[in-house]
């Protein structure tokens, strides 16, 4: 299934909001969404939540012969999968551009930057080395997969064996406006993406710009500064999560996904607590009420036009001829007669009649909206309500 | 750094260049008669061939065409004999498809695609010999091919790599310098406006050095653009002489 395209109004709205430095979920331009890291019962398994984006990461290893060119180095293998359960736009078993991009970016920032010491994975030089396989599954896609994936990968790797320290953080530019951690809808209006991977020592592990944007040098430098701040925050978070997990394990407490997700909801259908700005609420509300009072006097509602029963038209424009045939034009007249009768019945206290009374009231409201030019027809047609006749005491 | 001294005490690199010096760049345009535009480019020992077809009607599924601009289709491949070890798959592996994607993004930023709605421009690039800076050689060759095909662009797109060794930024890395495990930054620049069309960096580098490294790469790109401009002008002279006779 192809992704439903973003409508023009939505796009304009988003861009306008970004221009005014506002974002859909109330964040500031440089804010991250909430990051939550949950470790599984096995070592090297974790779920990372970044707002509504969710990824599951599992690290596994096996002994393999090394590559001929590098006999003393272990092998790292990264595999990210975009399954259709994360988003209807992902097709199964297909190497999409996004997938290639994400996989290569992961490889580059975790393998090529040498944040993992591959030589320590050597068992017997030239014969046996560890192959570490990092499988990342996207459970729910709400933008910024790259960040979620890299946080998941590094957390799972640190959890799996002795901790290696190197953490990633990223920025994204939307047009000439800079946004950090875009959600899915923001990603759709973006002009381009700048991904910066850094470790906590302020060393850049990789940079990648994409999406056909024109960057200026100053923008890149500014992005790298923001990235370094975000990176230290995320590093701290991961370390805290790791420590927490270690402590619980040592104390023999309960751990694993089952414990950390008591609601048994793996993907969506849950809503995080959102902080609401409560200062000056009363004043603002009063202010709004005061302002609206003045406008009510000015507004003059144009009287609706009833074309046929069940249809009414308010305002200007082309006259609605929907469902209007020559014969049908006569029908409102019978209705009018009906209401007359109902009005008479309305004194009675039988239940049936009461219901009819409501109906009648409704029709009268409609009928009052138009003055019928031909008064003769009001009495002309027959077909009174038989039920009404019977209900009469 | 694998015991190799990338920068000697006298300030010379492995192949005898100084830090900011580029490798020799040679290029020819219109090397194929069949294609709409083509170019052959040598940057040191790295050799690249680029061919451009289009703009033409969108091939394949009609749904790919865009109503407001042209689609750019890139394919990057490396000849099986281009590297020291024989390559099994010339294209289609992860690295090649990533490179194709990057080339596509670079030229989407540079070509005036909005002039050709509902059409497609094909850029095929092949590396004949890989000796470092494959991406930049491809971009430079493709730029010349696009110029040869007469497709309007905002500016020349020039790409160059830069590395960082012992607090010095090295321009235009060769294979030995690239594979040494040091920092390597690839940058595609539109020289006149100073806009960066693509930026990519590998390996670790302290944040404070980023400015110096980018500066070096941008200077190198500006140098390259002069050479490319010379190539285009010379080619035009040759062609105009031929047609006037």
Automatic annotation (TrEMBL), chain A:
Domain Exoribonuclease phosphorolytic: from-to ranges: 32-163, 174-228
GO molecular function list: mRNA 3'-UTR AU-rich region binding
Keyword terms, alphabetized: Cytoplasm, Exosome, Nucleus, RNA-binding, rRNA processing
Database matches in InterPro entries: ExoRNase_PH_dom1, ExoRNase_PH_dom2, ExoRNase_PH_dom2_sf, Exosome_comp_Rrp42_subfam, PNPase/RNase_PH_dom_sf, Ribosomal_Su5_D2-typ_SF, Rrp45
GO BP terms, alphabetized: exonucleolytic trimming to generate mature 3'-end of 5.8S rRNA from tricistronic rRNA transcript (SSU-rRNA, 5.8S rRNA, LSU-rRNA); nuclear mRNA surveillance; nuclear polyadenylation-dependent rRNA catabolic process; rRNA catabolic process; TRAMP-dependent tRNA surveillance pathway; U1 snRNA 3'-end processing; U4 snRNA 3'-end processing; U5 snRNA 3'-end processing
Pfam families: RNase_PH, RNase_PH_C
Highest taxon of the lineage: Eukaryota
Localization of this protein: Cytoplasm; Nucleus
GO CC, alphabetical: cytoplasmic exosome (RNase complex); nuclear exosome (RNase complex)
Primary localization: cytoplasm
Cited PANTHER family: EXOSOME COMPLEX COMPONENT RRP45, EXOSOME COMPLEX EXONUCLEASE RIBOSOMAL RNA PROCESSING PROTEIN
Family to which this protein belongs: Belongs to the RNase PH family.
Name used for this protein in its record: Exosome complex component RRP45
Automatic annotation (TrEMBL), chain B:
A GO biological-process term: poly(A)-dependent snoRNA 3'-end processing
Keywords: Acetylation, Cytoplasm, Exosome, Nucleus, RNA-binding, rRNA processing
Cited InterPro entries: ExoRNase_PH_dom1 (IPR001247), ExoRNase_PH_dom2 (IPR015847), ExoRNase_PH_dom2_sf (IPR036345), PNPase/RNase_PH_dom_sf (IPR027408), Ribosomal_Su5_D2-typ_SF (IPR020568), RNase_PH (IPR050080)
Entry keyword annotation includes RNA-binding: yes
Boundaries of every Exoribonuclease phosphorolytic domain copy: 21-152, 155-219
Domain of life: Eukaryota
Subunit details: Component of the RNA exosome core complex (Exo-9), composed of EXOSC1, EXOSC2, EXOSC3, EXOSC4, EXOSC5, EXOSC6, EXOSC7, EXOSC8 and EXOSC9; within the complex interacts with EXOSC2, EXOSC7 and EXOSC9. The catalytically inactive RNA exosome core complex (Exo-9) associates with the catalytic subunit EXOSC10/RRP6. Exo-9 may associate with DIS3 to form the nucleolar exosome complex, or DIS3L to form the cytoplasmic exosome complex.
Entry-linked PANTHER family: EXOSOME COMPLEX COMPONENT, EXOSOME COMPLEX COMPONENT RRP41
Name of this protein: Exosome complex component RRP41
The species this protein was found in: Anabarilius grahami
